[in-house]
Amino acid sequence: MSSIRPRRRAAAAAACALLLPVLSGCFSGPTGGAADGGSGDRRLRVAMAFPPAQAMSPYGDDAVLLSRLAVVESLTALDENGTAEPALATSWKRNGDSGWTFELRDADFQDGEPVTAEAVARSLTAAAEAPTAPRVLSDTDIEATARDENTVEITTDGFDPLLPQRLASPSLAILSEAAYGKKGKADPAGHATGPYTLRELDGTATATLERHDGYWGKKAQAPGVDVRFVADGTARANALRAGETDVAEAVPVAQAAVLDEKLVHEVPTARTNSLYLNTAKGVFADAGMRAAARTAVDGQALVDGVYEGRADPARGLLGPALPWAAERRVEPEGRAAPAKRAEVRRADEIVLATYTNRAELAEVAGTLQQQLERAGFTVRQVVRDYAQMEADALDGAYDAFILPRNTLLDTGDPVSYLGSDFTCDGSFNISQLCDKAVDRAVAEAAGIAGTERRQQAEMRAEAEILGRDAVVPLLHERFVQGVAEDVEGVSLDPMERTLITAETRVG
């Protein structure tokens, strides 16, 4: 705490004083905070940073939201080392180079229908055929068939040693037949398998979850969860301070400094905050301009000035949460020479974009704007709620986009992230990068079964990507979660897949 500067402490405290009256009652409701019995029987109140971007569709980032709220499950899960472990599947084995067999556990969906091999095959097929394929499938195709009631066969279009980890993705959640009412759509509300059922979604404002009493595992400790989606980080922290919420996701660094230390839990993550540059059009279609932007950026200044030391300066795309990365890192070769300052000054205005849901990003954007302008760029900022920006970012509407990405989110192995974000067919390619050498390097890594050899190939792929200056790694984040003193069982997950669990309770 002593490293926090007094100026920031004072500013944060002043913000708290102004906002507390406004927040009073914001986190209460018909059930929010009402006792349902004795200790441990009260509904949970949770303030989430990101509202649903696709009405809780499992095929985009909302899948992670559903996973963090313990609504959906997949065939497998990931342990703390990123290794696949049983979830709806109890065991699996490989059949040749491209086939796998999965045995299912005895479980029911939240609407009472049994989890069968036919249901699993239907869910995986729907995900594979979705209009926008989940990122985890951006570098592979899968085909699932029911062999008998409890056995599923899954084949891939090539050798895929990471399939068990891939199937742990929340985007490949298993849903009942009733979830698929419209072609290309999937509704998880009441049709998933997790310990909590999504009963009601009020747009991007609130969600109501109820305990799934038919859950196959340990019964949820709380009778339900009342969720508020609060993009303002100060508001989330104030709600925690005022006792109006039990869990506040992603507490801003400035607020962590003035909260009671018993409420603050800092978690190292695999999340790298990077500056994605549009390689397809505009100023940064020119490699020299991208190199000029890279040399203008000072990540250490962001760590010190914005994150108050609660982050690590970037050395590449893969940070300290993956200790093997530093040992195997390969330096990029053949980078373009930075454009001269006179050329930069003559370039068109660039649009630097980021979003409001993570409190530090607006300040990161301000600092980066200053750094880029000192190098000669003319910069205009666009900062809005993430739900309003994702589609435009993926369409290449911005010249530069500041985005923290969890490099282990999709498979527990970074090769899926490299494929989705930086290959020609990648489904989350904000940089619009399409380079044959990068595609070859990522494909090589994806096809290696041995862990050490795959990691070495992944670092070669990282070097190819960084060599194009399509992305400038800024820093590696630490996640700060706010949890009330009387709340137990919150998952502080470095992979950010879990938050509320069956074990989470009050008292």
TrEMBL record:
Keywords: Signal
Chain ranges of the Solute-binding protein family domain: 84-427
CDD domains, per database record: PBP2_NikA_DppA_OppA_like_3 (cd08490)
InterPro entries reported in the protein's UniProt record: Peptide/Ni-bd, SBP_5, SBP_5_dom
Signal peptide interval: 1-28
4Fe-4S as UniProt keyword: no
UniProt name for this protein: ABC transporter substrate-binding protein
